[in-house]
Amino acid sequence: MTALIQQLLQQCQLAGEERLTATPCHGGQINQAYRVEGSGPSLFVKLQRTDDADFFTEEARALTELSEVGGLSTPKVLAQSAVGDVQALVLTWCDLSGLPAAGFFMAGQQLARCHQVTQTSCGWYADNLLGTTVQPNDWQSNWGDFFIEQRLTPLIHQLDEPALTRRLPDLTAFHDCFREYQPAASLLHGDLWSGNLAGDKQGRPVFFDPASYYGDRETDLALTELFGGFPAEFYQGYEAVWPLDAGYPRRRPWYQLYHILNHALIFGGAYLSDAQHRLERVLHDN
């Protein structure tokens, strides 16, 4: 594997003939990942065996946009490369650890400022991946339509469970959440759970593994409250910059449902029954 990584790095002029060391490390659900060390700074290299030459394109674009436009601290994108059917994304290496309370407060502030970057429509420049799931991102002006048509409905169709599909006509109830709330199309991380936020050596936040698009900022916040949640300091930091709308608790279950549906598609098991119960609950409450 080291020889392949060296070839990939040579193609993008990030390595020469020097001896490299490639150490396997965590790289998300679907990719192989390595810390690569040589004569220069350490690199983080993600690999995926696929014929899709654009496999990492939207992740690279999201990291760059979150950093350069949204002001978040992310690993810097250095290059994309390919050898045969192996695609590579090369990032700066970051020594990461847990965030202290002050770091979570700072992360909340940074995310709120990132959300203040907006577009006139909801969507992204191309479809991207949420885990292993293709996430449609055609631009739409109406957020409610976007969320129903490009988030909930595709997953329910893919799951193909009668208890879910019979409820497809009822998803229009989501529109009732927006009688007095019109969200801006904010720049979103898109997959912000505790596994995709950490601290650098100075205890400052580093965001990574995005599935970005422009949409309601509350979707990012809703996911942070799922799968373990973030500490109170994170939300205090966020609210210090941009307080949440009073109706957020009503919309939060809808946004969390999307991620439970995605987990049901990827992992099955208890996530599927959880998705069914959550869908019934949001429809009942609306």
From TrEMBL:
The keyword Kinase applies. Keywords: Kinase, Transferase. InterPro entries: Fructo-/Ketosamine-3-kinase, Kinase-like_dom_sf. GO terms for molecular function: kinase activity. Gene3D superfamilies: 3.90.1200.10, Phosphorylase Kinase, domain 1. Belongs to the fructosamine kinase family. This is Fructosamine kinase family protein.
